[in-house]
Specification:
This protein is an all-alpha fold. It contains 30 helices and no strands. It has helices at about 15-30, 30-50, 65-80, 85-110, 115-130, 130-145, 150-180, 180-195, 200-210, 215-240, 240-250, 255-265, 270-290, 295-305, 310-335, 340-345, 350-375, 385-400, 410-435, 435-450, 455-470, 470-500, 505-520, 525-535, 535-560, 565-575, 580-590, 590-610, 620-630, 635-660.
Amino acid sequence: MTAVDPATRPGRNGLGSRAVELGRTAGRNPLKLLGIVLAAVATAMIVVGVGASVGTFPESWDIGLAEPIDRTRRWLINNQTSHWLYTVLLNPVTDLADAGIRQFETILEWFPWYVYPVLTGLGLWRVRGRTAGAVGFCGIALIGVMDLWHEGFATLALMGVAVFVSLCCGIPLGIAAWRNDRFAGVLRPTLDAMQTMPGFVYLIPFVLLFGIGRVPALIATVVFALPPVVRLTDIGLRNVEVTMVEASEMFGATERQTLRLVRIPAARPAILAGVNQTTMLAMSMVVIAAFIGSGGLGQDVLRAMRDIDVGEASEAGIAIVIMAIVLDRFSNGIATLGQQGAADRDAKSSADARNIRWLAAAASLVALVGGIAGHNEFPESLEWHFAPYINDVTGWTRDNLYDIWGTGIGTGPFSDFVTIYMVTPLRELFSSGIPWPAMIGIGVLGGLLARGPGLAFGIGASLFSIGLLGMWELSMDTLAQTIVAVAVTLALGVPLGIGASHHDRFRSLLNPVLDFLQTIPSFVLLVPVITLFHVGRIPGIIASVLYALPAAAHYTDLGLRRVPAEVHEAAESFGATRTQRLRRVELPLAAPELMVAVNQTIMLVLAMVVIAGLVGGGGLGLETVNALRRSDAVGRGFEAGIAIVLLAGILDRLTRAVADRLRPPPAV
């Protein structure tokens, strides 16, 4: 009788058989072998870290990147007038960009004040309907009423030049990515990094090179707003129907003619959607760029927040929201105008169209005459400020809602509860409770389970790099705030998305609120929150929840609505209740979209938690803000910026990998 190897014996020895087989497979597959090695190393780090109570990352391992950066900054300041880097390259670029912004602002200020509300109303009437036109007219007029006319022009000029440069660079890059898959492969991770990086981080390297002012704000805005138009141009050209291209080629059109006359017109909706997204990102970044002296409405919000003048901050914030909503509706309306069907076009009143054209022609004539006559200043007699009334309400709120009648119920006790029982324990757990080797080991194991050795190695290297930068404790503080904000956002957003997916009327009521929260620039949300909760970590967390809530609700709604109707019918035929159908059928099938919701929520919360450094949020955000406020803190802020990028990249790649694993394979 042949002896049986115990390692291959079935039954109780099956585990040994699987281990041998795993070892043989790993020997044939280097990636699996690498995965086993990484898993063993990560497990050893967790065991050793916990057993030896290592604690936080050693300060002696800090590579001290801040000091060389500060020396570089001092060298750049001392050589701005003599070195060829400035005289040949940077100074001409600075002069050209500054001249373009100033010239555009001069042109905007030349036209009479009444042209802007009229043309805005007519434009929105044309692309969105009469109601949108009336709201646009009143909104632009309100900016003048609040005496923010010139600040609005400064913001619009900087944003307009930034969008123009972004489109001039982004559309050709999108076309190049469509033409060349290898170039697209190189460009895609670059765009991913640009979209992952929070807006504040963009400002630091450009401050290092250009100092403060509108030019570094312009360059940072272009870099921040560029990715959407590149991506959507590429996607739009790739999705053009083959039959249209074949018909063009059959009629003898060259490749360039086909691109210009067929592909680009067919991809117009996608390209215009990219223009819309680029415009909105530029608007949000222009407001953030007030930290480096870009001026405009953002500067008013920043100054008012520093003085805790909620009324003035609210006026400037409302003006920013009006501009953002008008630009969003207008660009989105242009993008969708060409997609309307024949029936919709026929339903539009031809009389309305003729009236708009006549009114636009009359407005243009009046604009020309008014500009020559010098009617460009908004009349002081029409100005009115409501900031004092808001400050009165703010004072009453601060005095009466912080602790209602001494009952321990109010914004103060709530803030203390979240800080003491949620944020502080998590921060202490991550920074000192879990030893740093164990934290890195947990990250590596998470990467292995989510995608494989590549992601695991990237997470481990990123976490170790955060420690080498001397940003371990601050990063763990930011991570704790992010987790709390994400948990609260999902606890609110997922039920809202479920309700919207099951009730169309509720969805129609919810969408305007979510659109408002999605349109409003990020740090404007801090204004009302600090009214109720003063300064500290909690206002930043609450503002982060409000900022990220639309993404959580929209993606949940989208995922549940994509569940096939026949699945619903099959579940109902087996007698499943609505709750059972939701829990056992709909949510599992919508799991990929739900993970995308988690991913987007984390990215938005992380960006907003950084902005919360303005109001004492602590963590990496405070270091970044200090770098923009003080020239001697640029190096430290640069280190914090790198740590933010690494932390954002870890969370982004990890959640994307989980979403990809949950996504069903494509049908063959």
